[in-house]
């Protein structure tokens, strides 16, 4: 079990803690987000992901904490990941610079007896399964102000040793005012793994009256994306994403679907200080 699985998210622009521990506390209030993703619908054994994240500033707002819990199932494999995050934030230029660390565990299991074989007595496929659990340490940096953000992170630098398959993320975005009622938020996300091709995603979200946002995105040579971000009230947001594959796997599946709920424990949003990420 040397291979590792990296979860994918269509709405990562709204859930930064899943990529970067330095994002913790950046919403200036306790934020709880839950996500469910059904990838490559119709393909047997395709990945299914559930994720829960929470983060908040402490009384000393320079100090921020967070946590993530991720559960993936794909084919005969199961992946559970749990992390705690700490971020230290300071004023820098016209915004805030946050430096973050996270630590936790990665647990992978294999259930071989789910595989149908021509020989039911094959000893290689009748075992109850195997599990491997390793520690994980990651780090990141995140700069943001009201209308702009820039982040870089490596969430799995260490997994019992320096990780040769370390994942690195770079993301950036901004909010541009088109009129009194309309804002547009372009964003970019780049994922790099030394043993895999670079993955680059660009997206644009259009917001109307800070209540509803519609967006489209494109991941190079992989998929096209359409999504919505709806603010039901000052605390509760709901998001849905539809992802259509553009590679060879599209022959075997219909699409990917993702739904996300965010609750911000703040009862009044100051419009002057409102943010879109």
Q: Care to describe what's here?
A:
The protein has one domain (12-273): Outer membrane protein transport protein (OMPP1/FadL/TodX) (Porin, Beta Barrel). A hairpin with a 3-residue loop joins strand 6 and strand 7. The chain has a 14-stranded antiparallel beta barrel with strand order 1-2-3-4-5-6-7-8-10-11-12-13-14-15. It has strands at residues 31-38, 48-57, 63-74, 77-92, 95-110, 130-144, 148-158, 167-174, 176-177, 182-193, 199-208, 212-219, 223-231, 236-245, 256-264. By secondary structure, the protein is mainly β. The relative contact order is 0.17. It contains no helices and 15 strands. The protein is 0% helix and 56% strand.
List the helices and strands and how they pair.
Layout: E1 31-38, E2 48-57, E3 63-74, E4 77-92, E5 95-110, E6 130-144, E7 148-158, E8 167-174, E9 176-177, E10 182-193, E11 199-208, E12 212-219, E13 223-231, E14 236-245, E15 256-264
